[in-house]
Amino acid sequence: MSQLPGLITDLALILVVAGIVTILFKKLRQPLVLGYIVAGFLVSPHMPYIPSVIDHANIKLWADIGVIFLLFSMGLDFSFKRIMRLGMSPFIAVSFIVASMAFVGYSAGRLFGWTHVESIFIAAIFSVCSSTTIIYKTFNDLKLKHHKFTDIVMSVLVLEDVTSIIMMVILPTLAVGSAISGWEFAGTISKIFFFIILWFVVGIFVVPLFLRRIRQYLTNEILVIISLALCFLMSVLSASVGFSSAFGAFVMGSILSETIEGNKIIRVVDPIKDLFGAIFFVSVGMLVEVGVLIEYALPILAIVCFVILGQAIFGTMGFLFSGQSLKTSMRCSFSMAQIGEFPFIIATLGLSLGVIGEFIYPVIVAGSALTTFLTPYIIKSAVPTYNFIEKHLPKRWVKTLHRLSIGEEKVSTDNMWKSLMTSMLYITLINVIVSIGVIQLMLTFALPLLQGFLPDMWANVACGLLTLLFVAPFLRMIISKPNHSDEFKTLWTDGHRNRLPLLFTVLVRIIICVILIFYTSSKLTYMSNALLISVAVALIIPIIMSRHLKQRGIKMERLFIQNLRSKEIESIVLGNDKPVYANHLLDRNVHISIFEIPEDSMWVGQQLKELHLRAKYGVNISGIIRGRKRLNIPDGNACIFPYDKVEAIGTDDQLKSFSLALSEEVYGEDIRMEDREMKLEQIVVTKNCPFVGKTLVESGIRDRYNCLLVGIDEGNENLATINPNRRFTVGDIIWLVGERAALRELRGGEA
């Protein structure tokens, strides 16, 4: 028998032990993540007398793939649109909590005598220590999922996860040396946001369009291959520009999450993510040593206390500053007092860079196990702690805290300016980043290619013209798009005092476009700066005046918005959400509601024109959703089937009447269910039978007696099918199917 490769032996050992341990943890109602860590501890070389993993290098490779899948899955659950709708409150809370907990973590590291870089990694771990998975599970277990404060917590956790991704990119830079200038740090942050926005905008243009073109071929098998191909392609691209591969996986996941196929991708990728994720967490447990845990017992307990107290104090303050009440703030902050999965990834990053001691890893793992175990009890203690504090705080302080959590926003010109400037900033930032991306691509790839076919001067001219052709729609949107907004028009007509500031914003945007053209030209020509600026200004004028560019810009914007809203549109089409125009009907006291047709409805099988729904209830049927198909504006010939979703438009009273009729006009339960049993009986035709001498149709066996003639016994092996024109004669043996009462009536009342 041939020798099995070490990788297969190791994988078998890992999965067997992980399966047994996770079943045990599931039975004990503990997070499976801890089960994987314990399984890794059991199969590690640190446990004597137990089989252990042979090839650590292969396991580490699989664990790295596991990190990519974890970040890809996290991106699939992430939504940039949801971030934009959160408002400022979660951003304020996250900013304060992350900064405060980073300070606590760094102070704790220095307190234990750890190095500056080790303390930085501890600070990063503390700042994003909360676990979305553990908190979500605990909320479910404690039946708290529908409480208002849980939505606030989940919003903050989403932003914390984004912060974690950013930290994974920044930490390698910080780990290179003990000092980093403010400009370098700002440059790193700017680079991260530049590529996030560029990849996301380009991805939303390209990926949904690509998936839409091949949608008819997307079986589960093909979808998982394409999804993983896009994931690893973005991982490679991310690594090539200096970021981690996991960062690229997260970005691609967030792009795919906005597509119609997003939910399906989650389902097909989940099993693979679970496999590699389990291997990653097992590899975490393999690095834990009992001796290290005993030696560093004091730091472990101290870290647990720092995390719990830090989140309780600074977390509460962060939520208070974001406008929440004291009670809500305490419930939110107490929910986040644990060390989750991301600290493992950050610690793994520190180990791979060789900048943190190996003892830190088991310390973080042990701290995670303790805080995870304590999480339900900490959440339960929030309200009693609040009651205690409220009872002992001065009444004046309590009233002040309540007043701080209540605020009203006045609708004014200031708010209109704020809305305009925010929209203008988004439009300008996105189009500038896309323009820079196009310019860099053209200078890096297109220019050398053109120089291979043309003389340098003509290659530069061709590259410049092509670059201008590609970026012109984006430059026009920078200058013109905000000027057509309702806020801009209202402020312009509101008074002359607004016109000069508005013209100034136009001038700033023109200058930005001139700078972009100037930069491109300076890379391709050796003309003086004054001449280049003149050329740039001269080119801006036809860009602004071009109707062709205007149409191109409108088409690109519509395509982007359609792709961005594709998942939302799917939800509306399938009846899971109300259409966008529904809100515009509220002023007229008209609403849209979706009703499901019961399987026993009397309406089933009838056409809309037969039901007379508008005449009876005053409602209009705007759509019928059948499975994943939608029929918009159905005509009177449309038929109703069981489980159809009917979209009805009407007033509250009309929809109430419609709903009541739908629930009442059903067949209901059959109180004589036992009598509906069908029997098969053999009957001999006698001279007293009412259908002697009659044909099958004339006998009334089906119409009068509600029975079914199966066949006639003519002495052969099989029953013979009766000829419709044949007349029954005395002595015929016939087989009938029917209810007991019907057969009794047919026999003339015989028992």
Structure notes:
This protein is mainly alpha-helical and 751 residues long. The protein has 32 helices and 7 strands. It has helices at 6-27, 32-43, 56-76, 80-85, 88-111, 116-127, 132-141, 148-176, 182-213, 220-240, 245-256, 262-286, 290-295, 297-321, 326-335, 341-353, 360-380, 382-392, 395-404, 413-451, 456-480, 486-494, 499-524, 529-545, 547-564, 566-573, 582-585, 608-611, 613-617, 652-664, 696-699, 740-746, and strands at 591-596, 620-626, 629-632, 645-650, 678-684, 708-713, 733-739. The strands form 2 sheets. It has a 4-stranded antiparallel sheet with strand order 1-4-2-3. A hairpin with a 2-residue loop joins strand 2 (620-626) and strand 3 (629-632). Residues 406-412 have low confidence and may be disordered.
What attributes characterize this protein structure?
751 residues, mainly alpha, 3-stranded antiparallel sheet, 67% helix
